[in-house]
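The following block was generated as part of the benchmark described in Methods. Ligand: fe (ii) ion.
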Amino acid sequence: MFAKTFISTLMSAISNCSLYSKEHVSVENLTKKSLDTLNGLLTERESLEIMVVEDHLVVNKTPARNMGHHGTSFIKRLKRKGISRIDFLKGVTYAELRQFIADLSDPESELKPYPHIKTGIIDVRTSKYKIKGDGEVLTSEQVERVKEIYHSISPYRRISVSGLEEIVVNFIVTFKREANILKLISPVKAYSEYTYTHATNVAILSMFQAESLGARDDLLHDIGIAALLHDVGKLFISKDILEKKGKLDKKEWEEIKLHTLHGARYLAKIDGLTQLAPIAALEHHLRYDCKGYPSLNAGERKQHFCSQIIATSDFFDALRSRRPYKRDWQIQEIIALMKEGSGTEFNPFLVDNFSRALMKALQHEGGPSSGGGIPA
Ligand SMILES: [Fe+2]
Ligand SMILES: [Fe+2]
């Protein structure tokens, strides 16, 4: 990872600079090396964005793991200067970078304005995803953020991709600190909240599954965004049908099914959005055995692995959530149903992995017999 090399070299330059001076040959060499790596990173993008979220480095909206002691020292240096965000813009010069290194290495020195290096305070809402002492980990503000995004969607308006990225980065930071996945999913408090709460929960559950399977951060990030948007097509379905209390007739049911196509069509037009988003919107009701909907030349289209992950989370959260016409399913009942659909509706490997994680979470909460203490 080039960003890791850049931060390591930069940090070595900063350490050497505090030991010697900015004119020292080792500092000069390391500054040149950092600049080369940085320029390499900036060939395909306009800026390199580094944020400090609590004790983690987030590089270009993706949490950077295994940054080693250089990463830790870098965070400490930035915190001491009161900085939580640096943007390196295309065009950074050697003189600028050398001055930046010198200023960061000197505890007395103030950071100056540099033409291509912008420093400041992070603008993600750290206080809103603080973990509380016990109980609910994700606050309702998380759902509110998803709600804002959902409200901004219409056939005439494009979605805010950067807003989604911020939400997903916040999720990653939060769930990496909480081993019990059941603590991270929110209860649906009111019917009107269902869409946003469901989107949030499916995103968290899907990222959790992907992480437990060893997915890299960039994939985790894309799955999170795709999962947040999997049901976006429902916004194009009449409310009367979506919110109907009684049983749906055949025609209404056919219309509901169209949410997969509406969502995929809408998301495919959005620049800068992960390609997984329209794929998952289209395929999350397509089954592992290629049945389900929409029927796409049966047998020809296999459900994408990421859509399979999202489909498993979708099933789990839909049954778990309290809705007017559904009872609140106990976790073990849902696991049993998931297992029944293993190999037909769902990928058996995913069912196995997900149910094992859920059982572990239940035991953690005081044993499966307690019902898990799931928020109602
Ligand atoms: Fe759906
Ligand atoms: Fe869904």
